Amino acid sequence: MDRLVPAMEKALADLSEGRVVQPLRAVLPVAHAQGFLGVMPASTGTALGAKLVTFFPNNRDVPTHHATIVLFRPETGEPVVTMDGRLITEMRTAAVSAVATDALARREASVLAILGSGVQAGSHLEALRLVRPLAEVRVWSPRRAGEFAARFSVRAAASAEAAVRGADVVVVATTSKTPVLRGEWLSPGTHVNAVGASRPDWRELDDAVLSRARIFVEQREAASKESGDVIAAGRIDAEIGEVILGAAAGRRSPDEVTLFKSVGVAVEDVVAADLVYRAAVAENR
Questions:
Q1: Which of 66, 247, 266, 285 falls 20 to 30 Å from 199 in CA-CA distance?
Q2: pTM of the model
Q3: What's the CA gap between 204 and 80, in Å, rounded?
Q4: Strands (DSSP E) along the chain, which ranges?
Q5: Spatial separation of the C-alpha atoms in residues 229 and 255, rounded to whole Å
Q6: Do domains 4-88+267-283 and 99-265 have the same CATH topology?
Q7: Are strands 238-239 and 213-217 parallel, antiparallel or unpaired?
Q8: Would you give the distance in Å from CA 179 to the centre of its chain?
Q9: pLDDT tens figures, 15-28
Q10: pLDDT tens-place string over residues 92-131
């Protein structure tokens, strides 16, 4: 994770600077499961590949996400590796949130609230500890908050509101299609990472969150087409890559509420997979 966070920072900066070729995700709905199959290709010049990903939100005994990533040699188009993409998806999503948190959260932020107790909750806890000194972590979910809290030595909250009130950083990582975070719970100066609800008709944030916060995304085009929260807000203040490059302002005051709304974009997967591939090749020389 400590190598992945800076790799994601560079990928997002390259994306905002126009150095990445990346069409919008092609999505095939799977109606009977209320899920979808997505196809996500990207090229950075030094990495070329695509991810196939399924999202089945009603899964209970198996993960909701499954993925396969294929990398090709940029010079010839030859396939060089096929790898499982589920772990990469889990880790790159959290690494991107860590980049956003480092860019937008207050320097002294130390209280983290996590809504959700799945794999993204765990990966976000690992990633955010790299960019802020977390003194207190609270978790809430409808089913497994206690189990998660015991596993990671954090505190289970009795409700989403109890987890969020007074937190400096909030992570929303659920499969909910309706809002689970309310703006009235947020303290001045809070930073929010919202990584669920990646379809146009899904929401995880209520209108008060959207009206209070400045909204940052990975890519304007992707977020405005895929995120129900961004569509409801009707605005995007900046891309995270623009903040990294100094082309857009990040946090402007200690009391400002900031929101990073992530939908997940292909360059993150391709760059992360390329990092894994290059490390594996180096180890086996």
A1: 247
A2: 0.94
A3: 38
A4: 26-30, 35-43, 48-55, 65-72, 79-84, 111-115, 136-140, 155-156, 169-172, 191-194, 213-217, 238-239, 257-261
A5: 22
A6: no
A7: parallel
A8: 17
A9: 999 999 999 999 99
A10: 999 999 999 999 999 999 999 999 999 999 999 999 999 9
Helices (H) and strands (E) in the chain, counts: 10, 13
Q: How far apart are the first and last CA of the chain?
A: 23
CA 82, 122, 275, 260 torsion-angle sign: positive
- pLDDT, one tens digit per residue, over 203-232 is 999 999 999 999 999 999 999 999 999 999
Task: Tell me the fold of 4-88+267-283.
Answer: ornithine cyclodeaminase, domain 1 (3.30.1780)
The residue ranges of every structural domain in the chain are 4-88+267-283, 99-265
C-alpha 159/C-alpha 139 separation (Å) is 9
pLDDT for res 285: 62
Tokens 């150095």 identify what position? 19
Tokens 């909750």 map to which residue?
A: 121
* C-beta of residue 44 within 8 angstroms of C-beta of residue 20: yes
The secondary structure of residue 201, as a DSSP letter, is T
pLDDT band (50, 70, 90) for residue 73: very high
Question: Rounded mean pLDDT of the chain?
Answer: 96
State the Cα–Cα distance between residues 15 and 187, nearest whole angstrom: 32
Is CATH 3.40.50.80 correct for 99-265?
A: no
* Distance from the Cα of residue 148 to its chain's centroid: 19
